[in-house]
Each structure stands twice: as C-alpha cells, then as structure tokens.
Amino acid sequence: MATDQLMALDLLAAVVTTAAWLGAGVAAALRRPRLALSLFAAAVPASLARVGSVFALSRAGWWFAQEKVTVALPLLLVTGLVATVLAGPRLALAARRPSEPGSAESPAVVVPLLSTGYAAAAGLVVTLVFGYPATWSMALITVAIVATAVLVTWRPASVWRRTATAATTVTGLIGAGLAFLPAEATDTGGGMGHPAIRDTHGEHEGHEGLGERGGPVAVTSLRGPAAPAPGGTIRRYTLTARTATITLSSGQRVAAWTFNGQAPGPPITAAVGDLVEVRLRNADIGPGVTLHWHGYDVPSGEDGVPGLTQEATLPGREFVYRFLADRTGTYWYHTHEVSDRGVRMGLYGTLVVGPRSTGVDVTVPVHTFAGRLVFGDHDQPIDQRVAPGTPVRLRLINTDNTPHRFTLGGTPYRLVSVDGTDLNGPGELDRVGLRLPAGGRYDLSFTMPPAPAGSSAPVAVLKADDRTAAVRFTPTMESTSIAPGAARSDEDTSGWPELDLTRYGTAVANGDAMPFSAASRFDRRFTLVLDRGLALVGGRPMYAHTVNGRAFPSIPTQMVSTGDLVRMTVVNRGRETHPWHLHGHRVLVLARDGRAPSGSPLWLDTFDVRPGEVWEVAFRATNPGLWMNHCHNLSHADQGMALHLAYEGVTTPFHGTHGG
Ligand code: C2O
Ligand code: CU
Q1: Ligand 1 pocket residue status of 32, Cβ below 6 Å
Q2: What is the CATH number of domain 357-398+402-499?
Q3: How far does the centroid of ligand 1 lie from the alpha carbon of residue 70, in Å?
Q4: Which of its termini does the chain have fewer beta carbons within 10 Å around, N or C?
Q5: Which numbered atom of ligand 1 lies nearest the CA of 439?
Q6: Contact assessment for residue 439 and residue 401, using Cβ atoms and an 8 Å cutoff
Q7: How many CA atoms, within 13 angstroms, populate the side-chain half-sphere of residue 554?
Q8: Does any ligand 1 atom lie closer than 6 A to the CB of residue 113?
Q9: In ligand 1, which atom is closest to the CA atom of 294?
Q10: Where are the beta strands (DSSP E) in 116-175?
Q11: Which CATH number fits domain 218-355: 3.60.20.10, 3.40.309.10, 3.90.1300.10, 2.60.40.420?
Q12: What averages of pLDDT result for each successive group of 10 residues across the chain (660 residues)?
C-alpha cells in the first residue's frame, strides 16, 4: 500500500479507536451495558488495527511513525490493557443481566474505558498538532493531560488523589519547562562546524567564498559581473512595479500588480554570455518588491530575497540586478516580497536563455487570474498557425501554487527539458499527462504535423488540466497524409496516465550529467520532514506548515561550506503536495521512495513531494551565499514552510528573519 494511503488508514483507525473507547465508557456510565459491550468489542480490534497501521508506517519510514510509536501507542496500549482486564469481564457480566443495577456504571468499568478513550484522543492530537519529531516535552505534557483527565473522571480516595495529582503536576511542569529550552539555531548536517576548523587543513584556502583572508564576507558583496563574457552583449531592462488593470484576451479586466503595466511582466531573453541587467523600480506596490530569478543560479546578492540579500524595494526606490547568462533554458522571475500575494497578483515574468530553437518557439507561463486559467495573457486558447514540418518548442511554466496537468494531443512529442536542464535521450510521448509542479518548467518539442485534406482544424492542441485548450496549432497548408497512430487533437485526455519522470529518458552512469550518486560520500546530510502543526510563524502561533515541527523563522539554518557535497532528504507526512525549491542550486534526484531514477538524470530546482513521499536529492555547494529553501506553494511558505541554507562565513547586514 502506498504511504499516503497508509497514513489515511492510520488516521481512520485512530479516530475509530478513540470514538469506540469513549463511546463504550459513556454507554457504561449511562447504564447501557449491551451497547457498551459492543463498543468495547469494536474498540479492542480497532486498537490492534492501529498497532498494525503504525507498524506498517514505521516500515515506510521512521518519520511517518515516530511520535505514534513513542507516545500514542504506549499510552493507548497501557490504558487499553488495564481497561480490557478491569472493565471487560464486568461489562460482559452486566450485559448478560442488564436489569441488575450497579455493575456497568461502576467506576471500575467506566473509568478505565474513558481513560483509554482519553489516551487514544491524546495520541490523535499529538499527531495532528505536533507530529514529527516527538520531544520529551510533548510526551510529558501529553501524559500529564491524560492523567489529569483520568483523575477528574476517577475522583480517587484522598490519599491517592493527592499523590496522583502531585505526580501529574510535576510531570506537566517538567514537560512545560523542557519546551522552553533554547532551540538550536543551526543545523550543520553533520559537516565540519566552523570555517576556522576547515582553515587549519589549508586545502580550501581562497575557495571558501570567504573574504580575502578567510574572514566573513557580506552577502551584499556577492554580486554579478559588470561586463558580459567575450562575445556577449548587455541585455538592459527596466521593470517598474505598479498596480494596473490588465485586459485579458477575452476582454475581461483584472486588477493586478504589474511590471510595466503588464502581467506577466515583459519577457526577459538572453543568450549565453550576455549580461542581464535589470533595473527594478517600484511605483506604488506598498509592501515593496524584489526580483528573484527562479531556477537561475545567480550570485547570492542578486537573488532578490528581502531581509536576507537585500531590503525590499519600496515605492519610489530602485534596485539594479546584474548576472551573467551562463546556462540556457526556461526560467522565470517573480517578486519575493509578500510573494504569495505578489506573485498571485501578477508580479512575475519569463526568463529564457537561448539559443532559441529555429522554428516556432513559444513560452507559455500558466497562471490563475480571478479564478481563470491564463496562458501568458490569454484566457482563451492561443492560436498559432504553423507550416507543417516546422519544429515547435513549447516552454511551459507553472507560476501558480499548485500543480497543473498538461496533455498534448494530435502529434507525438518529446519532453526535452525540465527546469532548464535538457533530459538525456527523451523518448517520444503520446497519450500521457504531464504534471508540472508549482514553479517548475517543461519544454516540449515536436514537428508540426500536416492536416488532412479539406480540414482547417487545429492538428495539435495543448490542454491544461484536461479541460482548457491552452495552445492550438493549425497548419498553414493541408496535405493528404496524417501522422499515423497519434492521438487526435480533440481526444478526451482525462484518462491518459501520468508520465513518471523518474523512468523517462536514458540513464547516464557518470560524467557531467551524473557527477555523484547515492553511493557518494556526502559532507552534509539534512532531513526535512514536512507536515502541519501548531507553531510560531514570525512570533504568531498558528496551525502552520512545518518543517521538522517548526516554522519560519525558527527552523534551524542549514550550514554548508563551499565545495561540500550535500544530501537532502525531504519527507512529506502531510496531506498536501509540497513543491520543494532550493535557491541558488539545482539538485540531482538520487531517489524517490527509495528507488533511484531509471531514466535520464533529473536535475531539478522544484520538485513535488506528494503526501507520503520521500525524496533524496543532492547538490554540490558551489554558489556561496545565503539562500532560501522553501515550499513553492507560496501560501505554505507564508505559513511557515521556509528556511535558510547558509554558507559558512557569509553574513547579512539585514535582519534575516524575513523571506517574503
Ligand atoms: Cu520561485 Cu523562493 O522562489
Ligand atoms: Cu507546501
């Protein structure tokens, strides 16, 4: 069974267990011994089922079961055993003689049944409210709360009451005290601690991303070059952020936050070797704006993270970004200040580094405006007339917070590039769905097919989410042959299976595309367990999106040194998809759910970690700076699911507790 199904099953078992034990206790107290007995008879197997589901979850990964094994199950088993021994026989007796008063509602029956119910409920609350990792503080407080509830129900004789109350209070106080222990601010991932330690080896001198003599360096000094590479030119853009009403292709008007009055903002294009120079001005976006180059590994000082690499550019101010176009591919830019609202409102645009393909090359950022799916600025299909035989490249960019599914009908095609990196040996695709994570990019390529004689209908149609035609390609002339076997452009695509990227393309054993593998020796290892839980987000308690039980800015910063080989495990314990995005680095996928990709090497900057999934990825730390590492469902990031990855010795003059 898949881990997300196991998680759902375990949740169900926990709810049924809780309801059955509590129900049995209440029924007994209300002198309904028969009902109490049947609920008890349901509670016992439900509890055992819970043991089974927790065991199965622990096999899927300790992260999925830890607090259940250490807190929830012991509480349930101890109380359940006592209840079975004390209440079981009495209840069976009472059920046989329901008219006889006194046996079912006696404390020896009611108290253990209710207590087991409390314990089961507490286990459920621990999972839903705190989750991974279980702490001593959480365990002790939980025990104290259950004990208090038991004491209130039981009302034991006064000697017992005093001792039990004292013990409970002490347990609770110790638990509460432990909660106030100062939290670790950094996570070294098991690597060498401080740069001073590394310096004694002398081997990395001058390559540490540190100052001249190995001293600290400010992130604000890690900037792009002043001139292009030989043969390149300077690509100058001015983007002025301002509120405006945009008009979609249907004529619908939408109040938006724009760059130069348009949403998406002006497309930025460059060729390898060019210097991209973008002057950002803010006219009237109150909270401020920045530019982040999503997926483009620019120097840290150009990365556009407010409070970390720069201050947000406020109305009336400007900031100039400069970086070398050193890699081809499809990327995008967006504001990182109040990014959830800002991007949703329209502060984004496309970044494509060429050479562009000869033929037709279309870039389609997909975004939801006012509840409608918009392709570029089209809320109706984009119609393109293309001569048969022309190579077509379609660059899809998901600028929303949730994944979109795309299908291309009418012609076989290839998925040639993901997140700006070309795949190795991408095979021909037909009748499959492509799920594009939030923030991710797919480049599709095909040769324009001819049209059947007498028809002027589109022969290739790209659909989004199986309903909306996004782009329709119509041939400029007709022919008598049609592509044999390919799906028709008007076919219903909703039943098409989803392409598994980890099995697509051809494997590479080593070399540039595969410089390391799961067997490599890693300098640092980090684990991120994603969930929901009660946590402080910027000082405010909320039901947050958490990483290892904490929320931004209290999640320990991951520390690396230049040159480190870093392995990152990302686990999703929750019920929502988390598109994980590390700034400044592409990561190589080592495994998903323990299985290494069998197809092309996968270099991604945004990968969907779905409920129950475990991703292992790795990267070489070659871009010194201070970086965000966050969920690209920007509303999740806003609710805590964000942290920093910092290189030893890099400092920020900004407050650092903000990430947009
Ligand atoms: Cu596209 Cu930190 O984001
Ligand atoms: Cu998320």
Answers
A1: no
A2: 2.60.40.420
A3: 36
A4: N
A5: 1
A6: no
A7: 19
A8: no
A9: 1
A10: none
A11: 2.60.40.420
A12: 94 97 95 93 96 96 95 96 94 81 81 96 94 91 93 83 88 87 82 46 40 77 96 97 96 96 97 97 97 98 97 98 97 96 97 88 95 93 92 97 95 97 96 97 94 77 88 78 65 93 93 88 97 92 96 95 97 97 98 96 97 98 98 97 97 80
